[in-house]
Amino acid sequence: MSEQLATGQGHQANLMPRRPRHERTTEDYFAGIRRMIRAAGRRAAEDENGLTFLVEMKEELEKAIRLAVAASREDGYSWAEIARVLGVKPQSAWERYGKEG
């Protein structure tokens, strides 16, 4: 057995070869998240704490949006460009995401 370890032919040699990693686009990644959120909504109806879990997810999503907006601003995007993506007026985008808080 120690000979197997010395030659690198221990238990690792018996593992199946890894499949090539499938590169996912950002669009694919978020499509998967959308499917999971819809499934979470269906499952929430079956659990007494389900709604609480969904509200917590909503709060996490809001934090993620704030981070993305901040990164967009650092990358030079204007409030008008960010507001267009958010579907609001630039002033509203700034009031919600631009103020320190």
Key terms:
101 residues; mainly alpha; 66% helix
Helices and strands in order, then pairings?
Elements: H1 2-7, H2 26-44, H3 50-74, H4 79-86, H5 90-98
First-residue to last-residue Cα separation = 61 Å
Q: How many strand segments?
A: 0
Task: Tell me the series of helices and strands, N- to C-terminal.
Answer: HHHHH
Q: Average pLDDT value?
A: 86
Q: Classify the beta-strand content into a percent band.
A: under 5%
Unreliable sequence segments: none
What Rg do the Cα atoms give? 23 Å
Helix run count: 5
Please give the largest β-sheet: none
Tally the structural domains.
1
Structural class based on helices, strands and sheet pairing: mainly alpha
Classify the helix fraction into a percent range: 55-70%
The geometry reads as flat
Give a nutshell description of this structure:
With 101 residues, this protein is mainly α. The chain contains five helices and no strands.
Give an overview in words:
The protein has 101 residues and is mostly helical. The chain contains five helices and no strands. It has one domain. The model has no long low-confidence stretch (mean pLDDT 86). The chain is flat, with a radius of gyration of 23 Å. Helix 2 (26-44) packs antiparallel against helix 3 (50-74) and helix 4 crosses helix 5.
